[in-house]
Every structure is written in C-alpha cells, then in structure tokens.
C-alpha cells in the first residue's frame, strides 16, 4: 500500500513540473520590468493549461481573482512585450508541439477574477507565412511585441495575454475531456498614463464568447494548414484619434520585406497598422503551407504519468 501511494505521488510530481508554459514578466519599450510572478502578474500556481471554457479560470487562470501588489507602469502608445517561459527563463519557452496563436485583451481594472463582459481585444497573431505565433516567441526569448493603444485612457487595467496550444485541439474538450485546446491565460496588472480618451468597449466575455464551435478552438493541426481563424472578436478599433492597435498577424505577408517589418522594434510595430484592406488581402493570400505534423503529440508530462497497481 505504501508503494502504491508513492507511485501516485511521483506521477503527480512529474506532471506538475513538465511541459506547458507560464509568464515571467513584462518589458516596456524594451525595459525589463523584472520578475512579475505573483507581483504584478496574477500567476497561476503552476504552468498547466485551462481547457474548460465554462470555467472562470479561462479568463485569468486559477488565481485570477487574487489581486497582486504591483502594477506595470506604462504610457499609452508604449511597446509592450510579455515574456513567457517553459520551466526556466530563456529555455525552449514552450514545448515544440504546442503550436497556436497568441492573443491579447484589455479590461478595466478589477480585483475580481475578470469574469464577465469586460474585455477588448488589442492584439492577435495566429498563423501566417507558415509560422505560428508560438513559433515566433520561441525564437525571440519568449516575447512578442504589441503596442499599448495610444488612445487608451489613463487608468488601471488588466491586460490578459493567452497562448492557445492546439496540439490536442482536434477534439473539443467538452466531447473528449482528455484532449481539447489548451489555454494559457495570463493577466497582468497595468497602470497606464497618457492623454488618451478611449475606454475600450468591446464587452467580450470569454465564458460565452469562446465556444467549442469556434473553428479556431477546435482546430486540427495534423493536416496541411493554410490558414487559421483566430478566435474572439476583431481587434478593437480605437478610432482615428489615436494610433490603431497592432495586430501582427495580418502584417506578416508573403514577402521578405514585410516579414522583416514585423520584428518587434518600436518603429516597425507602429508601422504595421492593420488597415482593413491589408487584413482582407492577407487572409486570402496566406497560402504557404506548414510542414505537416506527423502525429498528435501529447504534453510531454502526460507521457510520464504512470499508474502502477501493486498487489498486496
Ligand atoms: Cu502543455
């Protein structure tokens, strides 16, 4: 009986230290704001994903309702990078099987868990030119830049960035609970300065806005992927008065020049404003094929999970 208990303990430990990803911190205009875990990030207890779209955890993770003590201070219009890692900072960032989009939302600050119709999409990157957003952060020390909209009104906000890992996304979690898209949401407390006037009002609610019928949530990567429909609303338009939010996805066109243009430097990020023309043309011309992945890869940690039954 003791051996049986020990085996379960080892299995649980193996799954908690393996796989997945979590957020380390934030960079503002290239400046590292330091380890933000449990300080300005409402960090989850471990790097495991959320899969249940009905759970409040889908919004800001299991600790979403636990306000932390600090805020990232940034001005509207600043270049922001959220830095992710796998087990240790600057490692492989996330397991190579975990391809998918990276999407960023903002909501007025709350000490609550973020449940409700309070969110607005400010940036998104899915699949373009044969490259997933996740592949890009793996190449860039866990980071991808977006611009804090210049028209965003000063005040406190939660900014939520998520990685959606699609390696088990060919099945819907509610139909096949062992599989399903893996969400890695991370909510960061921000205090924004500046003279912007826009309070974004997209009123998106993750628990009702993300569904198992979304083609970007139940999505099979184990075939030739030519395009990917990013879930959620369109990136919010902050209006002509301020600079538009940056969506890096549509800007990655099939030319060397434009791919170079979306490298996360302040200049180029500002330069890739998503005009509606660009969005349309890119979504229709993204024909580069990703190398097909040969087999559904489970999270590495789950492979090590073994249950040994010991007879007395
Ligand atoms: Cu994982």
From TrEMBL:
Residues 1-19 form the signal peptide. Its EC number is 1.14.99.56. This is lytic cellulose monooxygenase (C4-dehydrogenating). Its cofactor is Cu(2+). One of its GO terms (cellular component) is extracellular region. GO terms for biological process: cellulose catabolic process. Residues 20-226 form the Auxiliary Activity family 9 catalytic domain. Its main location: secreted. It is found in: Secreted. Belongs to the polysaccharide monooxygenase AA9 family.
